[in-house]
Amino acid sequence: MTSPEPISVAVITTRLISIRIWSVWALLVLASVVSAWLGDEHGPPRIATTIVIALAMGKVFLVGEHFMELRTAPVIFRLIFAAWVVVIGVALVVLYMHGGSPTHVSI
Amino acid sequence: MIDWHAGEALARPTAQPARRVPRGEVPGETGMWVLVGGDLVAFGVFFLVFVTARGRDVAGFDAARQELNLGVGLVNTLILLVGSLLVVAGVSAARRGLCSVAAHYFGLTIFCGATFVAGKVFEYTQLVTSGHTPRAHDFYMYFFMLTGIHLFHLLIATLLVMFMWRPARRVVVPTRSLRTIVSFAVFWHMVDLLWLVLFSLFYLMR
User: Fold this and answer.
1) Scanning A53, A78, B29, B95, which has its CA 20 to 30 A from the CA of B141?
2) Closest residue of B to A96, CA-based?
3) What's the rounded Cα separation, in Å, for the pair B25 and B22?
4) Which of B41, B89, B204 lies nearest to residue A13, judging by beta carbons?
5) Cα–Cα distance between A75 and B41 in angstroms, integer?
6) How confident is the model at residue B1 (pLDDT cuts 50, 70, 90)?
7) What is the pTM for the complete model shown?
8) Tens of pLDDT, residues B40-63
């Protein structure tokens, strides 16, 4: 038997993780960086925060569906999880809008 | 070091394909999902309580938020996402019977968990030493309480990955171990998922 050719960790990882998972992960990282930028005093506060909440709940949904493997789980599991994401997401936006953002910040 | 032989096996066209995840089957143990469901409901309530409290003192909460270290928060978010990717890779390796490879990924995930804890300790110390204690303002009270409960969950998740690491080091992963590995992976991902919301609420809501 010839000695096995060394395979780098990167190659093994590439073969173990599907393109779907890589894409989801890249989206999660991108959404996190964009959220952080918006949270770092960029853009109108109300719009920025609404986008941040929407992105957060979108990320939560992706983690559930793809990492927690809910996409292959019974429909009832997926429905309950999706309902949680939507209910919490909408409630957070409504409660945030009710409170709003400060017109000026005093430290 | 990575098991090169296992890597070679993966490179061969005859490499054992990943066991297909059957549709309509609960990932891991149902009991774990009961726990996850309970945690999601509890944290869901915590999120709403926090935003309601913020609505009563928007200026105060926003001023307090600006004292947080956004950089540490973002790095911690990315660390958990890397950890989640490593867990997915580890589970995928375990499904293919590449146990030593899986063990490496779980080992790296434990490192991610430890780094997150170190980041939190650094952040807590920075806040407390500059007078931003839970008693100083309600924002900090919620921050320490919710991120503290989350940190406790993260410690449990890291401990579970340590248990995954052990069976994965065996030559053959028995089906029962595989089910346990998937259940523990689900818990890790839930901890990651909860942090994604906490990060947005505490560091980014303005």
Assistant:
1) A53
2) B51
3) 6
4) B89
5) 19
6) very low
7) 0.88
8) 999 999 999 999 999 999 999 999
Phi-psi region of B28 (alpha: psi -120 to 50; beta: other; left: phi over 0): left
Closest CA to A58 of A33, A27, A13: A27
The Cα B130–Cα B126 span in angstroms is 6
Query: Cα dist. A59→A43, B29, B42, B86, B142 in Å?
Result: 21, 24, 19, 17, 23
DSSP code, position A71: G
Nearest to B55 among A40, A67, A98 (CB): A98
Find how far residue B138's CA is from the centre of its chain. 26
Biggest CA pair distance of chain A: 73
The separation between CA A20 and the C-alpha centre of its own chain, rounded to angstroms, equals 15
Determine the 3-state secondary structure of A41 from DSSP: coil
